[in-house]
Design brief:
two-stranded antiparallel ribbon; 12 strands; about 400 residues; alpha+beta; about 20% strand; single chain
């Protein structure tokens, strides 16, 4: 029988344990552990969730690596075409990290209705376009079909549809300005088959997606000429290395840019979340350990006479310390149980019902995204237990300074 564990268990289950002087302090310590793990779970789950969701949105509408002409054109509009007859298209076999590549082109235009007009960028896509990336953002209607003859089907954002007073099934005119000065703009009439809402304001306020063949005809390009290539990779954490490999496998006339470079202001902002998460973890663990140290000290002072009796009966210092460490471990586990129960419940509620809403103009999402990974949950619990237990070894050292004679007479 483990004598230290047996004594610790009797102390915990004793009736006077709940009504002792230390009871309120113990409850505070348990509450601190619970609140700490709740805050850590929420901060990690929402922080990583927000990073992943924004990254997915930016990737869905822009690709993860963009291959374009090596020129001074810094706009979103493609001017000089690229031939589709490339070694890396339609399958980028020379770089193992690439999962998909698609050809696109873009052209600036103006949508004109009876009551309003908006400047837009028409993003032309073809049969190789992976619609699965943006399917989840389609809120109304259906995706266009570009597998057959040239058609006028497009999808437009909810933001633009509301500003222009358009809905699914409506037709509208779009005017594309020619590069040559003094020339009349090209006019195209499109029909809305679907409406999307990404929450990514930079894209929602600007882009509509349609058939790339319209841009090829307006710009007088051949069917083999496109504006750029969007590349998707298997592992986003390796996007910098994969981007460098893609750059090395393309010709000197082409440039490659990752979305981290293209939208550096977004990804620099996302990196701040890592620092914020670390700060929250440190503060919560610090608060929990301080409360546990106080609780353990109170328990030791409250049981000073018991410590003296145990020492008088021959118990060594480490054996007595183990009794109180077992006691403290029990309190930590109680706090972790309630903290995990409440924290994971809150995260699941947010994940399924989206109660906490966010301003998409500031956060690029409509609601706080949640990423639940059981590996992170277990790691946070182990981290809390380990840090608390190691810190509690310090106050338990006081037991070694207690004299049996003085402790028995302690009042």
């Amino acid at each position: 029988m483990n004598l230290e564990y047996f004594i610790a268990k009797r102390l915990i289950t004793a009736k006077n344990f709940k009504s002792s002087i230390s009871a309120p302090i113990i409850k505070i310590a348990i509450s601190a552990i619970a609140i700490g793990i709740i805050m850590m779970l929420v901060s990690v789950a929402t922080g990583i969730g927000l990073q992943q969701k924004i990254r997915e949105k930016v990737s869905a509408f822009n690709g993860q690596v963009i291959i374009s002409n090596y020129d001074n054109n810094n706009s979103e509009v493609t001017i000089v075409p690229i031939s589709k007859k490339q070694d890396f298209y339609p399958n980028f076999k020379s770089v193992p990290g690439v999962s998909h590549i698609q050809a696109i082109a873009s052209k600036a235009g103006i949508i004109r209705t009876e009551n309003a007009f908006e400047g837009i960028i028409f993003k032309g896509v073809g049969v190789d376009y992976d619609w699965n990336n943006i399917k989840e953002y389609l809120v109304e209607g259906r995706l266009p079909d570009f597998t057959k003859a040239l058609n006028e089907e497009v999808i437009i954002s909810r933001f633009l549809a509301d500003r222009l007073g358009l809905k699914v099934g409506d037709h509208f005119n779009t005017f594309f300005i020619k590069e040559e000065q003094g020339k009349m703009p090209n006019s195209r009439r499109f029909v809305i088959t679907g409406i999307f809402s990404s929450g990514f304001q930079d894209f929602d306020a600007t882009y509509i997606i349609g058939d790339i063949r319209h841009i090829q005809r307006i710009n007088k390009w051949s069917p083999d000429q496109v504006g750029a290539f969007e590349v998707f990779v298997n592992d986003f954490s390796e996007i910098r290395a994969t981007g460098n490999q893609i750059y090395e496998q393309t010709s000197s006339s082409l440039d490659t840019k990752t979305i981290i470079e293209k939208y550096s202001y977004i990804f620099d902002w996302l990196q701040l979340f890592d620092f914020n998460i670390i700060v929250i973890l440190v503060i919560m663990i610090l608060v929990a350990t301080i409360n546990m140290v106080v609780a353990l000290l109170v328990l030791i002072l409250e049981r000073t006479q018991m410590i003296g009796i145990l020492k008088a009966l021959g118990a060594n210092n480490w054996a007595v310390r183990k009794i109180f460490l077992y006691n403290a471990f029990y309190l930590i586990m109680r706090g972790l149980f309630w903290g995990n129960l409440i924290g994971i419940s809150l995260l699941l509620i947010q994940q399924h019902f989206g109660i906490v809403q966010l301003n998409p103009e500031n956060y690029y999402v409509n609601q706080a995204p949640v990423y639940i990974n059981w590996g992170y949950v277990i790691l946070l619990n182990l981290l809390t237990v380990t840090v608390c237990f190691l810190v509690l070894l310090i106050p338990s050292y006081i037991i070694t300074k207690i004299s049996p004679v003085k402790a028995i007479r302690f009042d």
